[in-house]
TrEMBL record, chain A:
UniProt keyword terms in alphabetical order: ATP-binding, Nucleotide-binding, Transport
Taxonomic classification: Bacteria, Bacillati, Bacillota, Clostridia, Lachnospirales
InterPro entries recorded: AAA+_ATPase, ABC_transporter-like_ATP-bd, ABC_transporter-like_CS, ABC_transpr_LolD-like, MacB-like_ATP-bd, P-loop_NTPase
Keyword Transport assigned: yes
MF terms (GO), sorted A to Z: ATP binding; ATP hydrolysis activity; transmembrane transporter activity
Domain ABC transporter: 4-231
Protein name listed in UniProt: Putative ABC transport system ATP-binding protein
One annotated Gene Ontology cellular component of this protein: membrane protein complex
Length: 233, 767
């Protein structure tokens, strides 16, 4: 069953007097409870797709449905509600609040939704229970991303949207973080969307959507995804 | 380097809202300083020129019938350079309207020379009169006109030979009942001794003007003069004690203090603002600095480049402030002084110190900008080109109080930790609101103070309807008046006496007060002062002048006799300043009570009393109250200036800070929006960010505002009224509403930016 569907989605940006088509007639499904990787080089339309899935931008034409509900033309407030309740975001550069400690960084999203998970439990789940009172500046890159994952999951969202989650990490740390991300998503039965240019990550995904020059190049289904530990980074 | 200058101007334009606030603070600081400096320095220069051109006396000796032998003996005293005998006599220009004229006849024209404005040069032997220029102006008189002068039943007509300014009459009120000069009612003129003789055959020289040699000891000289004149001696007044002159000199000092007090706050803010802004600019351009270094720019070139930001903004701000001050603040404030002082020239003039201040401000601002870049410039280019490390945080003091800390929301914890982390910025915000509160409380407070103290003096302390001055009133006259007024009056002796403590000799106001309810003395805390039946009460100002404490003794020279009396109490009193004795105490000390002032209620027979020959002058409480109210005029311009500065200060500083905080937290706000925070929640967060500084600034501002007001009201105090600070609750509330209102409006404007947050920014790397 599709958690999210793109149907003939087009996104154009105004550049000077002209227009640039960043996403051209994209049609695909994101399957519920599965890991989907959106893969492509720079300028392929990855970020545009991520912005549209995350409800951070509006499409020019086409339809986006979430659990069967069209979100293409909903109001600004409804779009915020969608991000608030449906999407958990994992950023490439963690985007934690420097003045809040680890537990506070998770707790800040707790009030955004009624069925939020326990922040302390989330911290424990990502293995940072001993770092609860530490500020982001006192944590390593891997710990920061684990914290970011805990924050994203704390809202108990339907979809975990990850923007290059290992992009700022070395390969060993990246692998650990990815493993945690996939495990956590499976444990909590979440739909995971990873937007990346790193082809190795695609090997762990259930579905891979290849983007090139703003178009869907191909969609691959992976019946036997590798375990993160098996991937050659 | 030319390219870097181009880059600097582009940066300045891009960050204009932040640099404009530094520019405005520099401009306002300089505008206020040089504007007010132009006033006091101009007044000082005019005073110095006036004093030197007129050879103003150092000491005025008042005595009865000074003869030439005595004058010669005084001239021989060590430390006296020259002397000049004068006969001073009060007459009338119009008895009906009580236009008084003080006539002065000098034996020579060497000391306190009248300054001619129109007509012929003053000749102390010639007939005619050299009339007060301000009176002539008010009455449309000019040289060549003739005026009539009356003394008792004698009348004489004199030709106006010239119009003059008398240096001894800079702030001449003519009577102790008036607080400000009234040129149409109290004037003066210079005549020959023969002219005086025509009006009063018994006139003699009764004043001696003295010029002292350098480093002469005026106290010792006073004592020697007293010995020579013995019973004839009345008083010896130095220039500092002569309120006709000293009130002007003191005013210069007061305005000088004001210029420093008000400009310091703006200069401090411009320095703090430039530090914060430059630090942020340099942090944001860390990569650019790395690129510049990688391209081969020397460290010194980069440091000079950033120092130029401070230089350009501060130099334009201070110079513009300096240039517009002589056309705005200086003339506006000088105009207000003209009602109180008579001087031939009123020109604002700045001292070289204003230029030094510009140089100092520019140097400090440039150095601050220079220093802000030096740390990053020292880094290796590779380090500067790397992404900045994550901003560090640490626990605040409040986290040691778990009960308090745990009760706070995450937003508040964030705000408090940030405030502790960015101390300078927090301090700027606090000073912005604090400064605004201080200026608002001062401007409203000075109005409240003058009004309240005047109400206290002319509403509660004095409750008579009219005050009447008498000359040589006999016992019969007093009895007759008592009878006419059915004893519904109060008798007083008031005058100036020379008083001497073990350390000093000064001339002070002296009051012997009979029982009655038309004058009740109150201290500044509104407590009634009961005059003792033994001893005297002195005001705090007099106690300071004489350096006396309670239970010490002072000697009062009254009608040629030295009367020694014990200081029973020293009281803090608004007005008048002087020595107070009850009639009983005065009589118990072996003296006779000879009143010269009558305080009367609104009695049916009062008009009859006013017609009596013994009455020389009358003044109603209402007109005294109006006179006192006009003191407000001298501070009105300053008040308006302060109100405008207060609003500008809080708006500019808080907007700049709000913007700085907003741009710095933009990424966090964008992240929160991605995570699903509503616009309203981000707006609340932006709001909370400045609430802390606003509340702290307001609280400290309330205390600082009161302290500032206390100092400020001293600067508007006169020799007769010492103002104690007073602020109505409504004024405090209004100050709060304006200060917090401005902060609120600024916050609303900044928080509206939440709508335009671009969430995609949160996805970018930290640059």
């Amino acid at each position: 069953m599709a958690a999210l569907s793109f149907s003939h989605v087009v996104k154009e940006y105004k550049v000077g007097k002209g227009k640039v088509r960043a996403l051209d007639d994209a049609t695909f499904d994101i399957d519920a409870g599965k890991v989907t990787v959106i893969l492509g080089p720079s300028g392929s339309g990855k970020s545009t797709t991520l912005n549209l899935i995350g409800g951070m931008d509006r499409l020019s034409s086409g339809t986006i449905t979430v659990n069967g509900k069209d979100i293409s033309n909903i109001s600004e407030k409804a779009l915020t509600d969608y991000r608030r309740r449906k999407i958990g975001f994992v950023f490439q550069f963690y985007n934690l609040i420097p003045s809040l400690n680890a537990i506070e960084n998770i707790s800040i999203v707790e009030k955004m939704t009624d069925d939020a998970l326990n922040p302390a439990q989330m911290l424990k789940d990502v293995g940072l229970e001993n770092r609860a009172k530490h500020f982001p500046s006192e944590l390593s890159g891997g710990e920061l991303q684990r914290l970011s994952i805990a924050r994203a999951l704390c809202k108990n969202p339907d979809i975990l949207l990850c923007d290059e989650p290992t992009g700022a990490l070395d390969s060993a740390t990246g692998r650990t973080v990815l493993e945690l991300l996939v495990d956590m998503a499976r444990n909590y039965n979440k739909t995971v969307v990873i937007v990346t240019h790193n082809a190795s990550i695609a090997l762990c995904a259930d579905k891979v959507i290849h983007l090139k020059d703003g178009k869907i190049e191909r969609i691959e289904m992976n019946d036997n995804p590798l375990r993160v530990g098996e991937v050659n980074w | 380097m030319r390219k870097l200058i181009k880059k600097m101007f582009r940066d300045l334009w891009q960050l204009k809202s932040q640099f404009v606030s530094i520019f405005l603070m520099c401009m306002l600081g300089m505008l206020i300083y040089s504007g007010i400096e132009g006033v006091w320095n101009g007044m000082q220069i005019q005073k110095d020129n006036y004093f030197s051109e007129t050879n103003v006396a150092d000491i005025w000796v008042n005595a009865l019938k000074i003869n030439t032998d005595e004058a010669d003996d005084i001239k021989e005293i060590d430390g006296i350079a020259t002397i000049q005998l004068s006969a001073v006599m009060d007459a009338y220009l119009d008895k009906e309207t009580e236009e008084n004229i003080r006539l002065i006849a000098n034996d020579t024209n060497e000391i306190s020379i009248p300054m001619i404005q129109e007509g012929s040069d003053y000749n102390c032997k010639s007939s005619g009169i050299w009339l007060d220029y301000d009176y002539a102006n008010a009455k449309n008189l000019k040289a060549g006109d003739r005026i009539k002068i009356f003394y008792d039943d004698i009348e004489t007509e004199l030709t106006v030979q010239g119009l003059v300014y008398g240096v001894d009459f800079i702030s001449y009120t003519g009577t102790t009942t008036a607080m400000i000069p009234n040129h149409e009612r109290y004037t003066y003129g210079f005549v020959s001794f023969d002219t005086l003789k025509k009006l009063n055959d018994n006139v003699e020289y009764n004043q001696l003007k003295i010029k002292l040699a350098d480093e002469a000891d005026s106290s010792a000289i006073k004592g020697k003069i007293k010995t020579i004149l013995r019973q004839k001696y009345f008083s010896c007044i130095t220039r500092e004690e002569n309120t006709n002159i000293s009130s002007y000199v003191n005013k210069i000092g007061q305005i000088r203090k004001m210029s420093i007090m008000f400009s310091v706050i703006f200069f401090l803010l411009s320095l703090l603002t430039i530090r914060t802004t430059m630090k942020r600019v340099v942090q944001k351009q860390r990569t650019q600095i790395g690129i510049m270094k990688a391209l081969g720019f020397y460290s010194i070139q980069i440091k000079v480049h950033y120092a130029l930001y401070g230089l350009v903004v501060s130099i334009t701000g201070t110079i513009i402030g300096y240039l517009i001050a002589p056309y705005t603040i200086t003339p506006a404030l000088l105009d207000l002084q003209k009602d109180f002082y008579s001087l031939p020239n009123w020109n604002g003039e700045n001292s070289i110190f204003s230029i030094y201040l510009i140089v100092l401000m520019v140097l400090i601002c440039s150095a601050t900008a220079w220093l802000s870049s030096s740390k990053i410039v020292r880094e290796m280019p590779a380090d500067s080109l790397r992404n900045e490390v994550l901003e560090s945080s640490k626990k605040t003091f409040f986290e040691k109080i778990p009960a308090f800390w745990d009760s706070l929301s995450f937003e508040w914890r964030w705000v408090i930790r940030d405030a502790g982390k960015k101390k300078i910025r927090t301090i700027i915000g606090i000073i912005g609101v604090l400064g605004s509160m201080v200026l608002l409380m001062s401007s409203f407070g000075v109005q409240d103070t003058v009004t309240e103290i005047n109400n206290r003096i002319y509403g509660r302390e004095y409750s008579y309807y009219e005050k009447l001055k008498l000359n040589n009133a006999s016992d019969e006259t007093i009895s007759s008046i008592n009878e006419k007024l059915s004893d519904d009056c109060q008798w007083i002796y008031e005058g100036m006496v020379e008083s001497q403590s073990s350390e000093k000799i000064v001339t002070e106001n002296f009051f012997v007060i009979d029982r009655g309810y038309y004058w009740t003395l109150f201290d500044t805390k509104n407590k009634i002062i009961d005059l003792p039946t033994d001893g005297i009460v002195v005001s705090k100002k007099v106690a300071t002048d004489l350096s006396v404490a309670e239970n010490s003794y002072i000697s009062i020279l009254y009608n040629g006799d030295n009367i020694c009396m014990k200081v029973d109490q020293i009281v803090d009193i608004n007005s008048p300043q002087g020595i107070f004795v009850s009639k009983e105490s005065w009589i118990n000390a072996g003296n006779t009570f000879c009143p010269n002032t009558l305080l009367a209620g609104d009695n049916l027979n009062l008009e009859d009393v006013k017609e009596m020959d013994a009455i020389t002058e009358t003044v109603s409480l209402e007109s005294q109250y109006d006179d006192a109210g006009s003191i407000m005029l001298s501070v009105k311009g300053v008040i308006l200036m302060l109100l405008a500065a207060a609003v500008l200060l809080s708006v500019v500083i808080l907007y700049n800070l709000g913007l700085l905080n907003y741009t710095e937290k933009y990424r966090e706000y964008a992240t929160l929006r991605v995570l699903g925070a509503y616009n309203k929640e981000i707006k609340d967060l932006i709001f909370k960010n400045s609430i802390l500084t606003i509340v702290i600034g307001w609280l400290i501002g309330t205390v600082a505002g009161w302290m500032f007001l206390t100092v400020y009201v001293r600067t508007v105090s006169t020799s007769s009224i010492v103002y104690s600070p007073y602020l109505k609750i409504s004024s405090y509330v209004l100050s709060t509403i304006i200060a917090l209102g401005c902060s609120f409006v600024v916050n609303v404007i900044v928080s509206k930016k939440a709508v335009h947050i671009d969430m995609v920014e949160s996805l970018k790397s930290v640059e």
